[in-house]
Amino acid sequence: MQLDSPDREYMCPGHVGCPGCGAAIAMRFVLKALGEKTIMIIPACCWSIIAGPYPQSTLKIPVLHMAFETGGAVASGVRAAQDVKGDSETTVVTWAGDGGTFDIGFQALSGAVERNENFIYFCYDNEAYMNTGVQRSSSTPYGAWTTTTPGQQWKRLRKKNIVEALVAHRITYAATASIAYPEDLIRKVTKAKSLTGARFIHIFSSCPTGWGLPSEMSVKIARMAVQTNIFPLYEVEEGLRYTINLTPKGYLVNEYFRLQGRFKHLSETDLTHIQEMVDEDWNLLLRKAGSVPEIF
Amino acid sequence: MKQVLEGSHAVAEAVRLARTQVISAYPITPQTHIVERLSEYCADSTLAAKFLRVESEHSALAALIGAASCGVRTFTATSSQGLALMHELLHWASGARLPIVMANVNRAMAPGWNIWADQTDSLAQRDTGWLQLYCEHSQEVFDTTIQAFRLAEWLNLPVMVILDAFFLSHTYEPVDVPRQNSVDRFLPSYQPRFKLDIEYPCAFNQLAPPNIYMEMRHNIQAAMDEALIFFDQVEDEFEDIIGRRYGPVEAVQCEDAEIILITSGTVTSTSRQVLTELRDKGEKAGLLKIKLFRPFPTKAIREHTASAKKIAVIDRNFSFGASGIFAQEIRAALCNHPGHPPVFGYVAGLGGRDVTTAVVEEIYWLTKGNDMPQPESIWVGLHEVDHAIGQS
Question: In the prediction, which pLDDT does A296 show?
Fold first, then answer.
């Protein structure tokens, strides 16, 4: 299958991501859609490392590396400065992991969205603090092993629903996307770029290192997350209009969980419970969308 | 033109005349009058700046780090808890070599809640790579704020202008406000040496391994060394155009003084009066005001105290387990200077307690009456404390 995406590359080869890194795939496609007139803020996350040490950078756009919790605030300042200089053309984006978005950076993100700052916030979600060695975040899903939820203390709490939290702010545009659906991802980035105000794109980015997964399974597992309704693809405009972009084939969650080392301790009973939670979330989303979903 | 201005409004007036481009702030007493006035200037277009009303002090400084990285002139103001919340990003601003100017209104740290004057908030940030300038009166607050932008932009280091809670922030004094064209002559538009630029894409603040990190830190110290020299040059230019100067330190009757009081902030004004009275009584007293705390003006302090027999440092701040912080710094500055006078350390006025002329006089007589200082700080004006509190 030929992928229909812009030819131009804004990410050089030679980055220092792990083999099969979903966050590296996500960056590549997002930059193709954003183009060169982009300033990127990267708060502490895997990408603080992946982009390479001084004096090298794998990205062909201006990048401002920043402290962990500052993604929303720094973008606000960059946007303000570009506006003062009369530059309305440059797209200002924040590129953060789930820890910097769901946890420590949530206040600054919420503030920036409440102020409707004119920027796009990307969260590449690998469901734990991977850069520091796989510690749990509020994005870590129910059932997961991490180095801070080891043994019998695996995480028995739900993953925070970040998109719904931002929809509650009546954010201009919020969408989920996946490295397994690059055309959908590129379309959403292009759409977000055409809008004004605070925009948020939540990208499911698998992590072979942290998930106990062969690197060649990175994209496949991301596709399975969508097709099992674990990570549905949808978008919300003005915090009101929901569109579900893909109607999954309704696969059961079991195979998705069985392929990953981080879930190997789960029993059939646990998986049944997880299936119930996934079904419940999907039905909630269907009700919000208010209609039969479109076919992707 | 002379105007009667509140100290906070003297800051705001200077920020307006500096043609600041991006302001970001979060409310905290007693700093609020600064940002309220600046909000009004932005709302009525007296000042063509973007004003970001962020959700915390941490975000206020984060936003300015973003803006300053794009090469525009930036300002924020805070106090006490707000400054403490910024701590991480204070390091970031200097490490990223950004010329951000901040006014900090010296207020005590909680608990218990205390909104009154105390320098511990800013002195606790002495290792963060910011220049620190302590002001005595509203005219100095105004002038120093204008000068802060010149210093910051030349050195590529952030600058903190510091004023006492209420004694300065909420007190009205006559302030000479120069014309815009005079300020423009002294402070031309900001020409950044580097900025985020889509025509010339670079990565800022990225991973710095051991083979380069130390050199980056050494460069900041080199800029601090230069600041000691450049400060005088800035004051020369300011004096030429605006007609005033202050010096990194100000020595009053120190030449023949046997006991020199060392002060900062508004305690200096009170001490000036005490000095006059002591001199009238025939006492050989002197006064050394320290304005520039970072970089620390070691050479100037050594010179002005060289012929004194004793030094008495008044600290409206404290480092637990050690001593008043100015006293510490002065001891460190003098210790390798042969024949330096002994340093007596006094703590007074914490949490906004008045440092009256009687307190300063008591400090003078205590110093005169003792041959050598005790190792611990002397807490002046301490009430009876119930030491049973907190004990079982």
Answer: 46
